[in-house]
Amino acid sequence: MIETLQAADPRVKILLALILGVLVWSCGLVGLCAYLLAIGFVSWRLLGRGELISGSLGRLGVLVLAWCLLKAALEWVGGAGLQTAFLEAAVLGGRLLALVLLGLCLTAVTSLAQLGRGAAGFLRPLPGDLGWRAALGLSLMIHFLPLCLKTFRQARLSLSLRAAGLPPWVQLRLFVQTVLRVLAGRTWDQTLVLASRGLDRPEIWQEPLPFSFRQWLIGFCLAVLAFSLSVI
C-alpha cells in the first residue's frame, strides 16, 4: 500500500486531499465519522513515516483537545447547553484531527519535488514563471507542518535533557527561543538544498508528468465516494 501511494500521480493525491479537506469541513456527523475512519486507517498504515509517529501525534492530540475545550467553553458561555457545547466541540475536534492527519498522510507519501511538480501541472496555464514559483511555494508550505512538528519534538527532547531542573516559565521561554532559532536555520538550509539540487530552475517543475488513466479513474471513484458520504 505504501509503495502504491508513493508511486501514485501527485496530481491525483493533491486533488483528493483538497476535495477531502473541503468535505471534512462541510460534511455531517456521519460523513465526518466515515472520513475519520478512512483517514485514520491510512494514517495507521503509514505510522513511522514522516511525522506520523507517536510523539508528534500525541502533541497534536493535545492541541486538538485544547481547541475542543475552548470551543465548548465559548459555546457554553454563549448560552448553549452543556451537552450541545460538548457535541459542537467534539465535531470541531474531529474536523481538525481529520485535516491534520490528511496533511501528514499527504506529506508522508509525497516528496517535496513530487508536490511541486503536481502543483505545477495545475498552475502551468499561468503566465511566465508564476506557475512554477507558486507550485514551489505551495509545496514548501505543505511540508512546513511536518517540519514544525519535528522541530517541536527535537526541541522538547533537548530541553528535557538539559533544562530539567529549571522553572516551567524558563523552560517555556527556552523552548520558544529554540524553536524559532532552529526553524530559521532550517529555512535557510532548505533554500540551499533547493539551489544545490537545481530545484530553483523552471525546467524541473515544468517537465510534464506521465498520465495514468487507471490512477485518475481510481481517484475519480474515491472522489465520488467522498462526495456521497458528505451528504449523509
Describe the structure in your own words.
This protein has 232 residues and is mainly alpha-helical. It has one domain. It has helices at 2-7, 10-26, 29-45, 54-77, 82-109, 112-123, 130-162, 168-196, 202-206, 213-230. The longest helix is centred in the middle third of the chain and has 33 residues, at 130-162. It is globular. The protein starts with a helix and ends with a helix. The model has no long low-confidence stretch (mean pLDDT 79).
SSE topology sketch:
Layout: H1 2-7, H2 10-26, H3 29-45, H4 54-77, H5 82-109, H6 112-123, H7 130-162, H8 168-196, H9 202-206, H10 213-230
Poorly predicted runs are none
DSSP strand (E) fraction? under 5%
The count of DSSP E runs of length 2 or more, i.e. the number of strands, is 0
The computed structural class is mainly alpha
Mean pLDDT: 79
Q: Count structural domains.
A: 1
The count of helical stretches stands at 10
**What share of residues is helical?**
over 70%
Return the string of H and E elements: HHHHHHHHHH
Question: What overall geometry do the principal axes of the alpha carbons give?
Answer: globular
Separation of termini? 28 Å
How would you summarize what this structure contains?
With 232 residues, this protein is mostly helical. Helices cover 81% and strands 0% of the residues.
Key features?
232 residues, mainly alpha, 10 helices
